């Protein structure tokens, strides 16, 4: 039982290992009473709850531990960070913080030279500027400011960074460094997920953002990392985005076959893209996992369709005056906006219905917007509808829409939550016996448009406040209101029925990932079905091992601290439990070792790490849109694509390596060297851009020459074809002479008029002579046409070759021109 687990004993720190070395060199107490850590091996919490000291002995006998300890004893250099690793659900630290990290480069432990200390200071400042979206112009005269502030500091005296330098440090130094670290990390797991979406940025351009979701070996949890942004010229076609993704992966050395799935919303272009990517992966012997589109969007759209079905356009007229911005594409905000309106209802009525007519009658005369607002505020019916919509938001939709915008893995909860939400909608207007005890496909099979299943109007769920206000309506208004409410519920249910993946067996089986599901009788079958559904991950032999490992896991003693983060009593005296994220729980399961010191569940570990990355929605990439607006403000609309990528990569790097704090990001010699090279890298990119433009112009000129040659060839061909037509006409004339001569010769022989024989022979001879000449000319024309068509073919191939060279330049032309403008 969990209550009988062995707790970490501080007396163990005084023991020695088999080599008579004190274990307190590396043994540390874990974050919970029944766990320990190894600072040499950079582990997270390891359980000693089941085996006590034996668990520690098992770890110290692992070959990896022995080798690191041997190097440590030989005076290998270590760098020790000052913080402790937190729950993966919280902000992340830069490394396995609080653990000594082996460093084979002994120079890193030497004091930094002044030049490197100055670069480090410039890096920290650049990280802060990029993270907060500050203007680069803020850096101008910063050198003088710091020198005045810290006159006794040689670092401040040598600090030198202005707007131009800040630009290339971010775009060609820090950005590429964090991109390199990302690629190194994402190559380690078996699978990763690509999440993407596009928006129109402050440059009025389409910006495609791509994120990677994977199990990070460094963090030992699921992470979402910014990958890159692409500025699209005009409308983006599925084939264009496919080419961008494939070329990006090829450039960065990412294996397309390791792509597990695409995280997307539901426009047709994204469905087409998913199919195109799947075709490319199938060429390599794999396939994509497809579980549909973002369910957050589905719930959003269901609510929107329901509201719009009841003629609630009068919302818009008051929204602008609610002192809280509302967008029709962000329905999660609607509840807050309506709540604000209802709280200010009396004030709004006083202002629009009393103050304006009395004090500003001219301004509101024949003003359609004012008349619309007046109509809404003058009607009790409007207030009733507002309260009903607030009820829908707060009691049905907001919880789901808010909960599934979290970054931690939630795929194991998605099916149950979708099922509950759909059931809740149906129970709002249907009889309970038609809905209860049903789930999944059985719920989808309910024909809710049958009036026999409907509850009475007065029983429809509309919320207590709405029910109180409805008393102020007359009979016809009540009848109209209930008709609208039922229509809203039916419209919402219809949309959900068509779009929710409640018949998706994989989503249903993924519930087995929850720690409470491991003891279910069907859990073994479920985990095997999950394994079979993940493309190209486990072979038949591994699936057999998985079944055996799951049987052992299902009876494993699990420490409550692995899934319970905190227990407390709230202000109302109620007991509350705060849970760890599911990847934190599983990472503790992965740390369980056998008596031989090896992983007890290696196959299960491989599967779970690549299943937890399945995305539960597109909130992560859309959250990035807010970051885009922060860094790409209206006064920074001239930023190039490389600058945008640099800023986003730095923002992501500070979050990943520094837990969101720039000063916590480890400043290594690698990042210092990368920043020092940023100036030369920037100049090289400018030279390359100039060269690309020169090549582009040269190829364009060549293309013009080819086009002129093509036109010349067409003109020559037309002349030759006209000559052919003329010769064909002359041939008919020659044939006519021969036919005429032959007829006259036959007539002369029959009539005996031999004087006609000579004339006939002359006609035949002349015709044959002319026909021979025409045939010779035709053969000459045919030869000339063949030569001309061969020239046209060669020109076409040359044109194709030039266009192929121009394609990458054309695709990046806006970036190239941005770079050249900065020269």
Automatic annotation (TrEMBL):
Parts forming coiled coils: none
Protein name, entry field: HAT C-terminal dimerisation domain-containing protein
GO molecular function: protein dimerization activity
PANTHER family the record matches: HAT FAMILY DIMERISATION DOMAINCONTAINING PROTEIN-RELATED, PTHR37162:SF11
A Pfam family the protein falls into: Dimer_Tnp_hAT
Organism of derivation: Rotaria sordida
Domain HAT C-terminal dimerisation: from-to ranges: 599-645
